[in-house]
Amino acid sequence: MSPVRFEVDESKAVNIARILLDLIEQKHWLVSMPEYRLPQSLQAGSREHALYLTYIISIDYMTDAEKLWSKARSAYELYPEMFTPEKILDVGERTLQVFLRELGARFGTCAAQTWKRISQILVERYRGDPRNITAQPLTIREIKEKLSDFPYLRGDKLVNFYIRAMGETGLFKVKDLDELDVPVDKQVTRFTLYTGVLKLKSGKFQGCANDDPLRSLIQGIWRKAAKTIGVAPWKLDEPMWNIGSKLCAYRKCGYCPVEANCDKIKGVTFRENLLIWVSQP
User: Are 196 and 158 spatial neighbours (Cβ–Cβ below 8 Å)?
Assistant: First the structure.
């Protein structure tokens, strides 16, 4: 079998990035992210807002993000106390597992342990408030160091997502937020591959859609394209994620604002987060 060989189309990436930036400036519906639609009773910028994002992002993996955040909004309006470290540390593990499974967490036991550990760290180090992680403005690197003890939030898939969500909403004070890379997940990978920005020139690739080598390749592509058009890389995440999840996943090309620049690549299969990619003749 031929060795795996990738190829990057930098000019295509720049052209698509310009379209994505235009969507952002239009406040297009393809830029709206599920984590930014808050429960009615939640005040933006508050401690409760920071806790809500922290807990839900920590379980936003291998799940349907739209459903997870929709259920989280409903659950918060009924049981806001379940999103506080004090209550989470007080409630029984079994009760917490059931609550998290109802939210849509993939693994209830693991999710409960994650929330307990996050709560413990927040209470012991940050007076129960995630905003205190950046009581003073910090660099991305410094924030990642502080997050290194937080289960799942420290992971390569979620850490950029978490910093982006907290930084964009002003809950984290980030000195160099404009340098934050795109958080690579299955939807961003799908978008990058389907459009032909990243091509498989030979061989067959099988691996995690959001791990290296793909993660570094994809982040590098969009970092360079973003610099070319003068925008922060992480800003491109929002339209890419929406197009990937709502259009690319169903091959709804006729509705896609980047269709004219898309190669509609075939031979790409996703099984959960596993990517099977076969080069085409």
Answer: no
**C-alpha span between 239 and 226 (Å, rounded):** 13
Q: Are 174 and 244 in contact (CB under 8 A)?
A: no
- Tokens standing for residue 160: 């950029």
Give dist(CA 173, CA 130) in Å, integer. Answer: 11
Backbone angles phi, psi at 270, to 5 degrees: -110, 130
CB 181 within 8 A of CB 167: no
Matching CATH number, 5-32+182-278, of 2.60.40, 1.10.1670, 3.40.50, 3.40.30 = 1.10.1670
Domain 34-179 has CATH 1.10.10.10: no
Residue 230: both structure tokens together: 């003068």
CB contact at 8 A, 88 and 115: yes
Q: Which string of DSSP letters, residue by residue, matches 170-220? A: TSS-BTTGGGPPP---HHHHHHHHHTTSEEEEESEEEEETTSTTHHHHHHH
Whether pLDDT at 84 is above 80: yes
Domain borders along the chain are: 5-32+182-278, 34-179
Hey, what amino acid is at 155? G
Taking only the tens place, the pLDDT of each residue in 162-204 is 999 999 999 999 999 999 999 999 999 999 999 999 999 999 9
